[in-house]
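Appendix B. One record, verbatim.
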Amino acid sequence: PIHPTDDGTRRPTTSESVRTGGRVSMTFTPASGYGTGVQHLEALLEAAVNADATVSVEDSGAWYTATIGNLTQGFTLAEDEIYHAIYTITVPSHVTASVSSAVAGDTVTLTVSPETGYQLSALTLDNGTLTEAVSADRLSYTFAMPAGNVVVTAEFVRTSSGAGGGGGGGGLPA
């Protein structure tokens, strides 16, 4: 644990110490297949330290740096609280996802962009559930990321052209 009552000397262990009212900086580097986030780390640290401590977290893209100022009590962080498994989202042509990977519980937004003359007829997930009902008029959908990879499938149908005849099935390849 990090305690606020030492001489400030760094020790090469998984525990660190800082003087009362001092400042500590920590770097978090997720292993492959795992991740965390600024808001998650800030909430975790704010819950663990004294109420008047200041917490800030920066995302460098490959790691996170957390700085805690005015620390007056010890705290402990467990690795399984910090890092979470990351799962992938695979989308077909004409569908984009707000992210390509996410942790369980994150909200993912899907945007559908049918080709001219086509409309969405089905949008499904092999894992998880869409928040909104599928409709030809709706182009944006969300879902809560499950604890597993997600493959999205989409089916499109040709819209009637308004000119006599024609129309009929067929869908764009996914």
